[in-house]
Amino acid sequence: MRPRTGQPERFAVPATPTTDPLQRERDHLASSRAALRAMREDVESLDIRDVTGTWVTAIVLQNQIEARIAALADLAHTPLFFGRLDYLHAISEELSEGSGGESFYIGRRHVHDADGDPMVIDWRAPVSQPFYRASRTAPMDVERRRRFGYTGGELTAYEDEHLSDPAEGDTASALLAAEIEKPRVGPMRDIVATIQPEQDEIVRADISGTLCVQGAPGTGKTAVGLHRVAYLLYAHRERLARTGTLVIGPNNAFLSYIEQVLPALGELDVAQATVQQLVGHVEVRGEDSPEAARLKGDARMAEVLRRAVRSGIALPTEPCVVVRGSRRWRVPVHELTEIIEELKGREIRYGAAAEALPQRIAHAVLLKMEQSGEAPDDRVQDAVARNAAVKATVKQCWPAVDPAKLVLRLLSDPEFLAACAEGVLTAEEQAAVLWPKPGRSVKTARWTAADAVLVDEATDLVRRTASLGHVVLDEAQDLSPMQYRAVGRRCSTGSATVLGDLAQGTTPWATASWPEALHHLGKPAAHVEELTKGFRVPEEVIAYASRLLPSIAPGLAPATSVREAPGSLTLRRVAEEERAEAVVEACRRALGREGSTGLIAADARIPLLAEALTAAGLPYLAPGTETSAEARLTLVPASLAKGLEYDYVVLDEPAAVVAGEPDERTGLRRLYVALTRAVSGLEVLHAEPLPEQLR
Ligand SMILES: Nc1ncnc2c1ncn2[C@@H]1O[C@H](COP(=O)(O)OP(=O)(O)OP(=O)(O)O)[C@@H](O)[C@H]1O
User: Where is region (Disordered) located (predicted)?
Assistant: First the structure.
């Protein structure tokens, strides 16, 4: 494999007989594909029998080779390159072989010819960066930026900007517009060809710091987060291969929607999970009242748990007497007390202290042995640490803690909770946190999602949670402080990219301010960026939805849209008895156009609408099931709409969406999410009056 040095790489346009510029580009595509094929064949022909020492290394190597072959696949509908940069000057002294400028083709992956000269440069390489950032005001030595257009895998068009030519005016990119408007059938796509400058800043931000992105619906937060992972894996491949990366999303429907993006960018080793999956120590079967869930997610619970974990620590009442042969060694109570007080004062995990304690007691015994003229070695200390008397002292003073059992007791035993929560939670709050019925055992208790987070916190108090190298946290605004802590533990020695929109927070504990959230995450120094340019929702629709902003997130600026689409918003009032039928008709209308359709409705109305669709002979999918050319309609409960998008959205009865939530603000936020899922058209059907902000 050629090492990636991070150095710019040079490509010289080969002399081709044709003078037609489009044909020349097609020729370059053809020779790049041939080169990629040759690269793959090279790897396929590798014979590892001679070079591997053991069968273990052979398997490891074989796996690497297979991964490499997969990564070198030429996907018919994924263009090998999408852009070209012509620099004014040679990029660097060592690499320049002539006096003129250089050209680089920018694509998803690196491709080189038989001599090792690059034919396509990875979009993440430093030399590709001006493709995304260069502008007329800061051309970055780029003479010409060329974007390519493809139709069904064929290179059919290109578009040039002469950035260093003061005479050329700005024009909107038709290829960019076409890319954004492309019908949305199937899973989420990558945006590698059209990443915008402000998005690129986030994608390529340094790995050492945590970054938080506040962004209105459709501003590309999810897309940017995923491309950032791909970028970081490129720039820090070895480090992240060791420490791991993780993308966290709100639910499985969302995760299946985004799961293809990283593989399409050649990155197959990124884990994806929901917060609930991360904290899966216990089986969740119960549900909390909103008030109980809010309290259990409150950061004060961390202190309650800390006290609970340490509640078993007791000072000794008896000396520890170790018998070895004919001699008895006695560590008196005051010495044991000193050791335990010292361990209590140190900020180490409960479990680590429990492991240190027998060694400390043994050490005290050793000192006594030495004072009486013996010369014990380390083996003696280990043996003493395992002595039954020492074990008994440890058991009494620093008992083992089973995190799930501990939380079970905390939520079942009012006295224990009162002891741990004194001065932290009021009596009413304690009553709200307690389970309605005490749990009998860890297996049978009706754990809730918030309880599982408490168990995770307790587990970490006992034993440190392993940290990953980088975590991307999407739809972060819905996390409770305790959930932020759970995520924070998983990147305590790494960094994070936190993505969210305060206006879309629909949990009772939704984030009110990013600095506060970042504090709970354990990354108070994180930088907060804002994205306001919307790529999904047409101007007319986002302007309508933004009327809700003063009621749901007063501080936030409304998003602008990169697209005008007159006629993209339809409001239709219908009689109640005709509502279901009208919704079915609206779906039919939407399905008459190209792309996907989402019918979004209050969760409570889903069964009724499902029936209406079936009766009308309209097949539909559930969110998370991939849409295809044959199955383009998805029936989406409002509670699952977050993060998803459809070309056309039919929104059923906004008042019911609002009423489906425990309070009006949350209801309006849920509605804001539902109103901002459409790429090309939104039709709102209602029998009840619309919320006043939308009339
Ligand atoms: N630079 C871009 N070029 C082309 N399409 C883009 C670009 N940025 C974003 N998009 C598209 O806009 C749509 C919205 O992006 P994305 O889902 O990442 O937004 P979001 O901010 O996460 O939205 P939400 O807050 O609703 O979850 C996606 O289809 C995405 O591919």
Answer: 1-26
